[in-house]
Design brief:
2 copies of one chain form a homodimer. Chain A has 2 domains: about 210 residues, Enterococcus faecalis V583 domain (Enterococcus faecalis V583 fold), CATH 3.90.1710.10; about 170 residues, v583 fold, CATH 3.90.1700. In chain A, about 40% of the residues lie in helices and about 20% in strands. Chain A is built from 14 helices and 16 strands. In chain A, β8 and β9 form a beta hairpin. Chain A starts with a helix and ends with a helix. Chains A and B meet through α7, α8 and α11 of A and α7, α8 and α11 of B.
């Protein structure tokens, strides 16, 4: 028993070290087919653990029919839905292809994806561009407005960001996030500071590589008008940080948490790429005017990669203003969430600190043993989608990762280290 | 006695109402000579209450000789200093001409000034563009680098901002500052959020009104690289908010606090435009590497207009990260400054609130009676200049307004309401 404990301790020390030594840099925006060469026609990467059409929730179905029209695989939504039901599309998790996506999180051939490179380990991770708020595909939207915006991201914003990023050395995300934490962001439901810092870092190069000041003005206006623009960057960053932490024998550290709107799945370093899943829960939160919990789809998206690296719900203490937005109680209590998540994590991030907590580092490295032992499952700040296809966001809230995922994972982990 | 109390209460209610109903909007950037038509050749507006050349401190002298060269009144700094000593320049406080300036705060004919309009009352206030950090005129710098930057502000940035601002309806500052308070700014020594929000609001119009993408890139880079860019906007906003509060008979509310590096002066609504002055104090703070308190010039600048409207040291609770920068103790204690300033103010600003304090409004409307009664003088977050001309900033700290100003003011105020 003592020997196994030593193995686990050493493995977790190595896992935490890899997490904290990651050096994520936003380097480019390229078509998904260039980033992920395995992508093919009619292949759809989605958020969360593996799932087929029959198991998919409403907003996921809405997004899929929309993306099929966008990619030219179907002339309209109706045909797209029929094709999907007939098995014409090939579904895989983003996580299996170095990618992540918020909410429905679809990644397909021609969408532009942001490239975050982890310079310490050389790996890259990808995430599509954030579409803004309102009616958007990540919340299940699929009408002309949604598809037109995707075309603009593909034809205008993506190429412009690519030119700007390639003209320099990329945007170092570790220090940018550190700054964002001093400016009230937790990088999941509040990204106003980091979105602004990204715009500020990128805008001189956007200007100097631009040939069309009207298009440039639109770009600056789109990024500047989208307080969640940074979310997708934070997600690619999370994936880029966590991928090198996968597959460390004996490590009980969580390397991914993700949801497809039906199932919640986690992966643990010591058990490789196996998913441990359980039904997703319903967020508790606040609804936009005209909507109630009866309209809500349960928890969805790869965005929980943000909590996996100690941000989002784990960094609530940095973002008292988000507490009200997600219905997590009074602002002055936000710090309690961060302190509680400290009970299920292996360490603190000395580079990502929270001024109001006298520079306490964000709780980092979720240990499945601590989750099961304390009965405290990770707190996640999340958007809430309407349960029907084609509607969009209806609110924001807080949700817990299902304890069953951690219990299953702990069982498999114990077997893997010979303690069953 | 009771009748006088009623007069004072009513007057202060009116004063606070005017403060809180101000609607400051950044509308333009124009040459100072257009904004302030009284400006003439060899006329220099400066920070703080009235003072002549003989009384001026080192950095103020450094800035004056520099601006004389910039304006073409002297061929070099040496001649400029001789001219100044011979009485060739005409000195007046910015405050007498609807203007404010940080630190040395010089305003002269050809410098561009930002225009903040208070749409509720129709008045306008002016402040020069922030030069950035390092060697700058506001900290007494006066070499070629400093003067070249002033020329670029005059010839490139000022006109570009003017075009951008005129193409729209201006930037509404009340909501922008409200947002900045949720992002860790106190708008005196920390303006990173508001500077970014301003850039974000202005950049689409900067792009669409630009004809030169390289110049545009320089502009975006300059604003984006200057975390204190918003300070000068906050100051013009403060002046625009406070000017309509002047001259309310029976009001004991402070309408201006300002320092020229030698004297600290305050003005009180009920005593009109009279200055009550006392020698400035030395900030207690932290020094940049290589400098100590022995290098420091005492307190200077019109920037205390920011505290006068409830920001800066009064809003420290919104900006825990600034506490360390100005040497004001631990971050978690920042809220105490805000709570203490609540003891000398007439109310709270319901539109400028601090999330971490469960949306407590910033303490607003300094009452000279409360200052004298409690013995608590206003807390000011400030930059620290080198005491010699031509050096620049050496640190940042916290300083108290001298109690003697408030005691004198209270004496005059008592006489004005017939209670002596």
């Amino acid at each position: 028993m003592k020997a196994e404990m030593k193995v686990i301790e050493d493995a977790n020390r190595e896992a935490l070290k890899r997490m904290l030594s990651g050096d994520p840099v936003l380097v480019d925006v390229i078509p998904a087919m260039e980033a992920i060469t395995e992508l093919k026609e009619r292949m759809i990467l989605h958020a969360g653990p593996p799932i087929g059409w029959d198991g998919l929730c409403g907003p996921m179905r809405g997004a899929i029919t929309g993306i099929a029209v966008f990619e030219g695989w179907a002339p309209d939504l109706e045909v797209a839905e029929k094709l999907a039901a007939d098995g014409a599309f090939d579904f895989h998790p983003n996580h299996h292809f170095d990618a992540v996506g918020p909410m429905t999180g679809l990644t397909t051939l021609s969408q532009p994806v942001m490239v975050v490179e982890n310079r310490t380990f050389g790996n890259r991770a990808y995430c599509a561009l954030n579409e803004g708020l309102g009616k958007v595909m990540r919340f299940g939207g699929n009408d002309d407005e949604v598809l037109d915006r995707l075309r603009w991201l593909r034809d205008v914003l993506g190429p412009a960001m690519s030119k700007a990023l390639r003209s320099g050395d990329g945007i170092s995300l570790k220090s940018l996030v550190a700054r964002g934490l001093t400016m009230g962001d937790e990088m999941h439901q509040r990204n106003v500071a980091c979105s602004g810092l990204t715009l500020r870092a990128m805008s001189p190069a956007l200007a100097s590589t631009s040939t069309d000041t009207e298009a440039l003005s639109d770009i600056l206006s789109f990024i500047g008008g989208n307080d969640q623009f940074f979310l997708n960057i934070a997600m690619a960053m999370g994936k880029a940080i966590m991928d090198p932490v996968r597959g460390i024998e004996g490590s009980s550290l969580v390397t991914a948490m993700s949801r497809n709107g039906t199932d919640f799945g986690i992966r643990v370093s010591g058990t490789g790429d196996k998913w441990f899943t359980a039904p997703v829960e319903m967020p508790e939160g606040l609804y936009f005017p005209g909507f109630t919990e009866a309209d809500a789809n349960p928890d969805m998206g790869d965005s929980t990669i943000v909590e996996t690296i100690g941000l989002g719900g784990f960094a609530m203490g940095a973002a008292p203003a988000v507490a009200g937005f997600v219905g997590a109680g009074t602002a002055s209590e936000a710090a309690n969430f961060t302190r509680t998540m400290g009970e299920i994590t292996l360490g603190e991030n000395p580079e990502w600190t929270i001024p109001a907590l006298d520079y306490l580092g964000v709780p980092t490295g979720i240990d499945i043993r601590l989750v099961v032992e304390t009965g405290l499952s990770p707190t996640i700040n999340t958007g809430i989608a309407h349960k029907e296809p084609g509607v969009g966001q209806v609110g924001a809230g807080v949700v817990r990762a299902p304890m069953a995922c951690f219990e299953q994972a702990l069982h498999a982990f114990a077997q893997s280290v010979g303690v069953s």
